[in-house]
Amino acid sequence: MPHSIRLGAVAYDPKVVTIWDGFQAFFAAHGLAFDYVLYTNYERQVEQHFAGAFDVAWNSPLAWIETERVARARNTRASALAMRDTDCDLRSVIAVREEGPVRSLAHLAGKVVGVGAQDSPQATLIPLEHLAQHGLLAGRDFEVRRFDVLVGKHGDHVGGERLAAQALVRGEIDAACMIDGNHLAFSTDGSLPRASTRVLDRTGLFDHCNFTVLDGADAAPIARLRELLLGMRYDDAAVRPLMDLEGLKAWLPGRTSGYALLEQACDRSRWLAPFLRSMGAA
Amino acid sequence: MRRSLALAGLGFDRGAGVLLARELRRAQPGDELEITGSARELGLHLAAWARAGGHALVEGRGGWALRFGPSTQARRRGAQRAGAPEPSSVAEHARPCWGLAARGALVEAGGQALGFRLDRAEEIWFSSAAELYRAAAAAQWDPSADIPWDAPLEHPDEVEDALVCVLTFLIENETAALLVPARFATQVHPHFREVVQLLALQAAEEARHIEVFSRRAALRRGELGLSTVGGQASLRTLVEEPDFARAALLLSVLGEGTFLNLLAFLREHAPDAASAEIMRRVAIDEARHVAFAMAHLGEHARADATLRARLAAAITQRHEALRASAGLNEEVFDALVLLAAGSFDPEAIAQGHARVQELLGQMDAGRRLRLRKLGFDEREAAELSGLHTRNFM
Ligand SMILES: [Fe+2]
Ligand SMILES: [Fe+2]
């Protein structure tokens, strides 16, 4: 019997359907019957992963931590099967206006810091954790201005970061948080006009999404999925458009060493508490 | 290979990406690039740039070492040329995977094929296409500037009515003549670009004819003439003809060829200077449309002995299809007589009538001459010309 597998993913953009339909065709051509279920938010996806609605989750880093913690509370284990090359070693920055008064982290006291979506690791949780580790607590030492776009999508959508960058340029906020790739994109496309802003500080490195599986899942189809993913070559014209859409040049074996900063952010902000409680994992 | 790139003060906010892209274009997987530069966020941006491209970046003393990843040049591997740029070496068969690419471009593999119905040189290509396009592009004119719209209109009202009746007929014919090349322009593989360009230009010229005829018709009258069932039925067979060669024969060789005589007649008998100039200029355009079809069909008839029989069948079939229709609108016929007569004076009408009979003879002679040039013998040409629609187009 051919292997079959079901994936859970979040529909943060209409292209998600194109992507997974493409993977479905690719896997089918290699003897793996693949289907997927889309969710509007990661919390529902994590909940349904434990309910057995699908075998593998395409998880944001925050959804990974949620899954990992629920698994631990239930005496089971989650593991990261694979990730994109572009999910590794990311960094966020805190940008300020070139001519503004903020010359060091300490100058952020009493100021307004713009962040992305409330649940965005790169544009909110990790930068705020970085500031906290330098003694600056959101709400106590500085004001946070949220640019919430699509909460539940864990910041997969770039919208909030761009809005924060624009507000910074217009002088409506004193600092804006964003991932390095967006800082590059906004600098190149002029959203951050040249010499109008500068990077005040950079966070440490962190990792992004992964394919997550729970212990007890059927091992053979999962091994086949991993084998097919790691075997995808950007040289192959048949899969290159898919890899371009999904934003990677190669799949790498999953690693979980890049989530420490986000773990610390979650612990400090207690952001996950309500969700973990609802899952009986508080 | 190992190269170095000195960016000096240039950052990504001022175009450093252009220089990196240039290095990327000439690199192979595994090549190394030493980068130096002093722009403020260069390191941050290089890291993001390298990650997105699947390259490895190491920060060292005074700069960065970039090692190009395995995806470097991936887009060029397996890519193929969409033929060669010169018209003299067009492909026999333009491939669907070339899609919209310029002739001679390097086409990345893996794209979705874009099929075109007319993708074989033997169906649509002919050697003088480029030359005909250049001549046509150089011969365009401006309806606003090139027609003496202010010239006096001193002829009787009834002559104006006759002219409006003929213009109404012409506009309807020009509309069919626009739709046919416009439709084929979307079906010819872009590899045969000169043919697409000729078709597009021809459609644009017909649009101009619609414009000048409509504008002239409105100069003195608020209403247009009669559009008949028979006239539209005749044109419909052209608009619906799916075969490129058959459409070229029916529309251009026979229809527009017949119009050359009609336009010359209308120019000679135009009641005003604007109409005369319109007919003169439109006829020059139409002569090119006829020449396009003659060049294309002539070349193909020489190469393919079966083509003439198919073309003859097209004429016969259209004749059969139109057997039950009324043919030329009687009002148009009478209007042509009145235009040639200039008045309802019986003697003038007799002369006008004789002139229209003469016109019909000239039209037939013209069709026979063109059919002879396509290789039909005298008897066939006479017979086929006789089967041409009485609606002229
Ligand atoms: Fe015309
Ligand atoms: Fe024409």
Descriptive tags:
heterodimer; A: about 280 residues; alpha/beta; D-Maltodextrin-Binding Protein, domain 2; 2 domains; 6-stranded mixed sheet; 5-stranded mixed sheet; 10 helices; 11 strands; about 20% strand; globular; B: about 400 residues; alpha+beta; Translation Initiation Factor IF3; Ribonucleotide Reductase, subunit A; 3 domains; 4-stranded mixed sheet; two-stranded antiparallel ribbon; 14 helices; binds fe (ii) ion
Give a short synopsis of this structure:
The complex is a heterodimer of chains A (282) and B (393). Chain A is an alpha/beta fold.
Explained architecture:
- The complex is a heterodimer of chains A (about 280) and B (about 400).
- Chain A is of the alpha/beta class.
- Chain A has two domains: about 5-85 and about 210-280, Periplasmic binding protein-like II (D-Maltodextrin-Binding Protein, domain 2); about 90-200, D-Maltodextrin-Binding Protein, domain 2, CATH 3.40.190.
- Chain A is built from ten helices and eleven strands.
- Chain A has helices at about 15-30, 40-50, 60-75, 120-135, 160-170, 180-190, 220-230, 240-245, 260-270, 275-280, and strands at about 5-10, 30-40, 55-60, 80-85, 90-95, 110-115, 145, 175-180, 195-200, 210-215, 250-255.
- In chain A, the strands form two sheets. In chain A, strands 2-1-3-10-4-11 form a six-stranded mixed beta sheet, sandwiched between helices. Chain A has a five-stranded mixed beta sheet with strand order 7-6-8-5-9.
- The radius of gyration of chain A is 20 Å and the shape is globular.
- The termini of chain A are far apart.
- Chain B contains 14 helices and six strands.
- The chains are: A alpha/beta (about 280), B alpha+beta (about 400).
- Chains A and B meet through helix 6 and strand 9 of A and helix 2 of B.
- The structure holds fe (ii) ion (FE2) (2 copies).
- One fe (ii) ion binds near residues 206 and 282 of chain B.
